[in-house]
């Protein structure tokens, strides 16, 4: 005589949304403090006197000491997000890098290691021009322009 297991005779039940219930003890009513002597009344678990018994202090309050946000200096000035930062090269440095003179662009200067690539370049007038430089695509100060043109070079700011 073969007996069937009880699991074989029962049909498997499918879990449905309306069958879901929270676990026993998972949902508790919150304790309403300060609502009478019968339920956490009087001090409501805050102890006796003091600031914390009365109400919470504001963020940044340091017990009457001058707070950190007032001790630090205010932000001053303004920085334009559109300001162009130029890489600076002097005429004397151009004379060292190109002693025989040449057609010079920003790419040539970055290849020689005088400036970083990808930034605009400005030539300033410190030093002497010993050869004729033909500058293309770089900014030039007035003193640098006079020195380069006096040495027989030219400047074109394209």
From TrEMBL:
NCBIfam families: rplO_bact (TIGR01071). Binds to the 23S rRNA. Residues 88-155 form the Large ribosomal subunit protein uL15/eL18 domain. This is Large ribosomal subunit protein uL15. One of its GO terms (biological process) is translation. Residues 1-53 are annotated as: Disordered. PANTHER family: 50S RIBOSOMAL PROTEIN L15 (PTHR12934), LARGE RIBOSOMAL SUBUNIT PROTEIN UL15M (PTHR12934:SF11). The lineage of its organism: Bacteria, Bacillati, Actinomycetota, Actinomycetes, Bifidobacteriales. It comes from Bombiscardovia coagulans. Belongs to the universal ribosomal protein uL15 family. Gene3D superfamilies: 3.100.10.10. The keyword Cell inner membrane does not apply. Residues 1-12 have a biased composition (Polar residues). Pfam families: Ribosomal_L27A (PF00828). Part of the 50S ribosomal subunit. Residues 16-40 have a biased composition (Basic and acidic residues).
């Amino acid at each position: 005589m073969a007996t069937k297991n009880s699991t074989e005779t029962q049909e498997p039940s499918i879990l449905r949304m309306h069958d879901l219930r929270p676990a026993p003890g998972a949902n508790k009513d919150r304790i309403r403090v300060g609502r009478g002597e019968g339920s956490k009344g009087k001090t409501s678990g805050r102890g006796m006197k003091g600031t914390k018994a009365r109400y919470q202090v504001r963020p940044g309050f340091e017990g009457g000491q001058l707070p950190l946000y007032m001790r630090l200096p205010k932000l001053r000035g303004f920085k334009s997000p559109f300001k162009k930062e130029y890489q600076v090269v002097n005429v004397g440095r151009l004379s060292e890098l190109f002693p025989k003179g040449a057609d010079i662009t920003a790419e040539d200067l970055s290849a020689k290691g005088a400036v970083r690539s990808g930034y605009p370049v400005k030539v300033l007038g410190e030093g002497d021009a010993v050869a004729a430089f033909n500058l293309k695509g770089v900014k030039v100060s007035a003193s640098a322009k006079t020195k380069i043109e006096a040495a027989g070079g030219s400047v074109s700011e394209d």
